[in-house]
Amino acid sequence: MDPDSGFDGDRTHDDGVDYARNRDADDPLAEFRDRFDVPGEIYLDGNSLGPISDAAEASLDRAVEEWRELGIEGWTEADRPWFWYGESLGEDLAPLVGADPDEVVVANSTTVNIHTLVGTFLEALEDRPPGILVNELDFPTDHYAIRAQLRQRGYDPDEHLHLVESRDGRTIDETAVVDALEAHDIGIVFMPSVLYRSGQLLDVERITAAAHDHGALAGFDLAHSVGVVPHDCSSHGVDFAVWCSYKYLNAGPGSIAGLYVDERHHGKTPALAGWWGHEKETQFELRETFTPADSAGGWQIGTVPVLSAAPLAGALEIVHEAGIDAIREKSLALTSYLISLVDENLTDLGCSVATPREPERRGGHVAITHPEAERVSEALRDRGLVVDFRPPNVIRVCPAPLYTGFEDVWEFAEGLREILVDREYEDIQADSTVS
């Protein structure tokens, strides 16, 4: 990162809160904070669920009014005709994942998209090995879906699902991915862009190149990076990807998911075919034979859920207005600042940072470990400092750039220090409730 950008995180902070306030005063994204309604005193859980913005609320309200005023005519006469809603929002999303518009569509949920894309590419392997390479630190739903798709094709998941092991319980070494490709017959590599516990950012380009060098396809779960990390899926040759829109994109709970399919795979028959993925030109001829759209739109399944997709339209307006590169720059500055505050003030109280310190290996959140992480997380919430806990010992802290400032990070670190010094967490009963 350019040390002259004003967002370097490698300085000392002898000025305390004044340092943070000075950084906020120079922040070009500070104005976006007022466009969000942020729960709690300080909201640091946007890697689980982003808050509502004025633009997301307005686009939802607009869809409701179109439903009220247009009724069924909304499919063709709405501001964004609902018939093309998935493709239209996919076009808005495409620059964030480095893709052409017809390579991206919003559809389904993340898990459903894993099912249909992994299933599709398992069938496309033909005579190639059906082995799928994942890692042991994945979000579990990815493995659930992949195992189900293997079983449905008569493959034993215990034999055909291969795990890259972590050497430290926190991160995955890309060299271990390459080693696994050499050790097993692999047809598909499916990895996250960012590990959900530690926040490690994997090298998508390197993994994709390694997969292709070994004759395998490369797919990614971008759920923990879309909207905070720029991607270049098309130029890196990524075969397919999935993501949600309720984290850094701030499109609301259960909002519609997205997917990317490289253009060289367009026209394949989806594993989970549905009428909304039919070519648009003949969709309402209601033919008995399914003809998939010759675009990522072919992997849509059921009718687009307009009301769960509508907030994304406004949410993307804000992301594009801020600029994904500026968002990434501020994100790295905030997480660097947080890491330095943990190092300076919290290590002697049992805290450590489990997130890679190198900026190029870090996503948008920081994992802080503590033996009493669950109870400490609850104590933080009781103070209005909203974070989340991941077993066994991780407090995930997400200073999302669009609505979080440096003073917020400073106040969080001070609040955490006070909780640990005063042992406030000891009065809280751990119940393993995960948010």
From TrEMBL:
Q: Which GO terms describe its biological process?
A: anthranilate metabolic process; L-kynurenine catabolic process; L-tryptophan catabolic process to kynurenine; NAD+ biosynthetic process
- Where is the sequence biased in composition, kind Basic and acidic residues? 8-25
- Reading the lineage from the top rank, the first entry is Archaea
Question: Which GO MF terms are attached to this record?
Answer: kynureninase activity; pyridoxal phosphate binding
Q: What EC number(s) are associated with this protein in UniProt? A: 3.7.1.3
Spell out the Pfam families in the cross-references.
KYNU_C (PF22580)
Q: Does the keyword Hydrolase apply?
A: yes
Quaternary structure? Homodimer.
Protein name (database record): Kynureninase
